[in-house]
Amino acid sequence: MSTEKGPNFLEEIIAEDVNNGKHGGRVLTRFPPEPNGYLHIGHAKSICLNFGLAKKFGGTTNLRFDDTNPEKEETEYVESIKRDIQWLGFQWANEFYASDYFEQLYEYARQLIQKGLAYVDDSSAEEIAAMKGTPTESGKNSPFRDRTVEENLDLFARMRKGEFKDGEKVLRAKIDMAAANMHLRDPLMYRIKHTAHHRTGDEWCIYPMYDFAHGQSDSIERITHSICTLEFEVHRPLYEWFIEKLEIFASHQYEFARLNLNFTVMSKRRLLQLVQEKFVSGWDDPRMPTISGLRRRGFTPESIRRFAEMIGVARRENVIDFGVLEFCVREHLNAIAKRVMVVLDPVKLVITNYPEGTTENLPAENNPELEDGGGVRELPFSRELWIEREDFKLNPEKKYFRLAPGLMVRLKHAYIIKCDDYVMDDNGNITEIRCTYIPESKSGHDTSGIHVKGTIHWVNKSTAVPCEVRLYDRLFRVENPAAEEGDFKDHINPHSLEIIANAMAEPSLRNAAADDKFQFMRKGYFCLDTASTPDRLVFNRTVQLKDSWSKQKVSLE
RNA sequence: UGACGGAUGGUGUAAUGGCAACACUGCAGAUUUUGGUUCUGCCUUUCUAGGUUCGAGUCCUAGUCCGUCAACCA
Predict the structure, then answer these.
(1) CATH code of the domain in which A290 resides
(2) Whole-angstrom Cα distance, residue A488 to residue A482?
(3) In this predicted structure, what is the pLDDT of residue A3?
C-alpha cells in the first residue's frame, strides 16, 4: 500500500510501554487457543495481531493451549491448530499448555485459601446460580463461605485426591457477592471432573476454570501484553485481582473487537454443528471460514495476512463484508496465478477451413502480470475445439462481444474466427458451432487488420483433459445467520456447492501440483482439491473474477 | 432498570484541539488478445442537545442507540 495506516490502539499502548522501559522494553505476547475445534478466520485476525505486534516491537509470541476443560479438548485439534498457525506464516517462541501449570495453579489456589481468599463450597450448581443474584440484584453469601482455612485446605486436598464426585464441591474465590461486576461474586476457581485429559490423563480430577488459569498462565510465562477479545473485558478486574492477591508477575490484559464476517458463522460451536451434522464435508470443507477450509479453497497465507492488515483493529463491533476477503485473495492470486484455459460447460466448435489431421502448437504466456510473462507454454490447436456454451448466442443482445452467427471473435492465443453455421438438436440445444478462421490473424503475427471486441478461451478437443470442477458460493443466504430466529442452519444456501463433472482442461493441467494456483481465464481462480487424483483431476474455485459484464447485463434488462 | 465498553460514508479503518482522509463496495469513463488487471473521475461521513475554546470528530455535561456480562465453557 502506498498509504500507511496510523498505528492501532494496541500499537500505541505497546510503543508507550517500550518507550517507558516497562519490563525493560521486553514484549511477549501469546496466542491462547482452546484445542476444542479448528481455527477460523477470526482466529487468523488474532494470530496476525499477536504475532505481528510482538514482531513489530522486537518481541516474541508463545503458543499456549488453554486446555482446562478435558471434556471438549482433543489432540487432533492441537495438531490442526499448530499446522494452521505455521501455514499462516508464524512461528511461536514456545509451545506451552495451561495443563503444564496444573501443579503450580494448585499451589496458587492453596495460597489463596491460606490467605482466607478462597473456600470450598458444597453447594450445587443450581444453588450457586441462585445465590449469584442478577445484574441488578446482589447475591447472597454461601453458607460454606466461612469455613476455616484448615478445613478448606483439607477439603481442597481431598477434592484433588478424588474423594468427591463431579459437582459435589467447588473451590471459589472469596471476593464480594454484592459486586456490581458479576464476575467478582465469588467466582469458581476449580471444579471436579473425573475425566481424562488429553495430556495429563487421569492425573487430575479437579480442573481450574478459565479465570483461574488464563491470567496465571500469562503471569507464569511473563507475558507483557495479553490480548483478547472484547467479551473478556468484564473479566479483567478478576484477572487483576488474582494477580494482585497472588503477588505474581503482573501481565496486563487488553481487549479488541473480534472479527465478524457476513454470510457465515464464526463460533466454534456452530462450526462444529455444521461438521457433525454433515452440512459440510469437514472442518476443511472449502465453504467453511476455517483456516483449513480457506487453505483447501485456495486462499494463500499472504492474502489472509493482508486481510487482517486491511480490516484493522479497534474496540468497536464490526461486520466485515465478505467481499473484502475476496478482494485480498484476488489481489494476490492475480499477481501469482498461472493463466490456463479450461472450458466448464463445453460445446464443440469446428473450424471448417482448418486442415483435418493437423495440429499446431501455439505459444501462450503464463502470467501477463509477471516481468517475462511468467514464461510460455505450448497449446495444441487443431480443427475441433471446445468452447464455453455461454460464449455463443443465437440472438445476441447489444454489446455482446462473443460468438453468434455472422460474428467474429478471437480465440485467445490463437486466431480470429467467424461463425458461419451451427447445429441444433431436436430439443433446441446447440451441439456444434461451425466457423472459419483467418490464417493471417495468428496471435502475435496478426496482419489481418481485423479488430474484434471479444476474446474467448478454448481447449483443443483431441488433447483436452476431462476434469471435475467445484464451484462454491457463500454458505448462507442471509448476512447474519446466527442472529436469525430459529436454527441458523435453516439459512444454509442450498447452492453453495455446484459440481461440474465434465469440464475440459488444457493438457498442461495434467501436471498441476497441490500448491499451484491457477487462473482459469475469464472464469476465476482455481486450485487442486485435496481429493484430486492423477486419474481424476478435481479443481476448486477459490473466487470468481470480477465480472462487469454480468452486472451490465442485469442493468440492460 | 446494575457494571463495563462502544458510536466517523453502504462496510471497515485513520485523523491524538488546527483543511475529515485511506481502503473496500457502488457508479461512470480510458486502456486491454481475459467483459480480468491497470488508470482516471464520481457518489457517500463525524448519534443528538448543550457547554469549554479563536478553533471540537477529538475535551466537558446530559441524553439516545448498540454490544458484553447472571456456564462447575473458554
Answers:
(1) 2.40.240.10
(2) 5
(3) 43
